[in-house]
Amino acid sequence: MALVAYRNLMRAARIAFQGDAPVLAAAQVQIRHEFRQKSSLESSSADSEAAIQHAEDVARILRENVVQGRRAEGQRDTYSEQGRREDAHCLESTVD
């Protein structure tokens, strides 16, 4: 279970921070740190299950709620949303 949660979280970070190498690297370092810190937990313990659930929740938030923007040229405090074309249909269906 922990390995699946780890992989899902790393994948979600890679997708959420695509094109932003410094932020992606920092996220990966933090994910590794948190998992290493909790590696000594008993796999069937409540603390371990809570840590796995937390990782799954963070991955879901990264997939569903993180949007990257790029500053519009020549305009202060104006940003345009960056996203992949295949993600646009998901956004349209959730807005309705």
From TrEMBL:
UniProt region (Disordered), positions on chain: 69-96
Residue runs in coiled coils: none
Assigned keywords, A-Z: Chaperone, Mitochondrion, Transit peptide
One term under GO cellular component: mitochondrial matrix
Basic and acidic residues compositional bias, start-end: 70-90
Gene Ontology annotations of biological process type: mitochondrial respiratory chain complex III assembly
Principal location listed in the UniProt entry: mitochondrion
Location of this chain's protein in the cell: Mitochondrion matrix
InterPro entries per record: Complex1_LYR_LYRM7, MZM1/LYRM7
GO terms of molecular function: protein folding chaperone
Highest taxon above the source species: Eukaryota
Protein family per UniProt: Belongs to the complex I LYR family. MZM1 subfamily.
Assembly with partners or alone: Interacts with RIP1.
Free-text function comment from the UniProt entry: Assembly factor required for Rieske Fe-S protein RIP1 incorporation into the cytochrome b-c1 (CIII) complex. Functions as a chaperone, binding to this subunit within the mitochondrial matrix and stabilizing it prior to its translocation and insertion into the late CIII dimeric intermediate within the mitochondrial inner membrane. Modulates the mitochondrial matrix zinc pool.
Designated name of the protein: Mitochondrial zinc maintenance protein 1, mitochondrial
